[in-house]
């Protein structure tokens, strides 16, 4: 089991390499962690979450773009948010966003978290995915405490 040291940066050239990165990353996160994913549309945010969740015995991950949040239960509970369609942060509070953040028994993934940085906890792991001209991805992972 390899534990990832932060900050971490790697260039990925395939879905297989993304899955391998997700496996190493999954060994480095724990209940109570909040992971914010940033990157342009189609950069691979949901695919990465899907591959991390697979490591926890969850195989039914889909994008929460329309539902705003999906909940999965495997060896750990995962809450998966997508802020893409949110127009104002008050919409998140209407669905109990703070209650989810306070669930220390779960891991929380937030796609497009950069849209509302004012409500993202300071204690988080942030993953920025940059799509390069050759369609590879650069994953830049930082931990903030």
Task: Please give a structural write-up.
The chain is α/β, with parallel strands linked by helices and 145 residues long. The protein has one domain: P-loop containing nucleotide triphosphate hydrolases (Rossmann fold). It has four helices and seven strands. The chain has helices at 15-26, 45-54, 90-94, 97-101; strands at 8-12, 34-39, 69-73, 77-82, 106-111, 124-131, 137-144. The chain has a seven-stranded mixed sheet with strand order 1-7-6-2-5-4-3, with helices on one face. Strand 6 and strand 7 (137-144) form a beta hairpin. Helix 1 (15-26) packs across helix 2. 26% of the residues are buried. The model has no long low-confidence stretch (mean pLDDT 94).
What is the terminal separation in angstroms? 24 Å
What can be said about the biggest beta sheet? 7 strands, mixed
What is the CATH third-level topology name?
Rossmann fold
CATH architecture assignment name: 3-Layer(aba) Sandwich
Mean pLDDT metric: 94
Q: Over all CA atoms, what is the radius of gyration?
A: 14 Å
Strand content: 25-35%
Proportion in helices: 10-25%
CATH superfamily: P-loop containing nucleotide triphosphate hydrolases
Count the beta strands.
7
Count every helix, treating DSSP H or I runs of 4 or more residues as helices.
4
Residue windows where pLDDT falls under 50 for at least 5 positions = none
Number of domains: 1
């Amino acid at each position: 089991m390899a534990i990832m040291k932060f900050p971490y940066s790697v260039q990925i050239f395939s879905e297989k390499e993304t899955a391998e990165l997700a496996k190493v990353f999954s060994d480095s996160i724990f209940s109570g962690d909040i992971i914010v994913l940033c990157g342009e549309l189609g950069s691979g945010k949901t695919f990465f979450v899907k591959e991390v969740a697979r490591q926890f015995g969850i195989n039914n991950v889909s994008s929460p773009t329309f539902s705003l949040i999906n909940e999965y239960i495997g060896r750990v509970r995962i809450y998966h948010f997508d802020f893409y369609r949110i127009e104002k942060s008050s919409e998140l509070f209407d669905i109990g966003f703070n209650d989810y953040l306070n669930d220390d028994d779960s891991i929380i993934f937030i796609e497009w978290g950069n849209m509302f940085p004012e409500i993202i906890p300071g204690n988080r792991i942030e993953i920025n995915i940059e799509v390069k001209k050759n369609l590879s991805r650069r994953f830049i992972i930082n931990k903030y405490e």
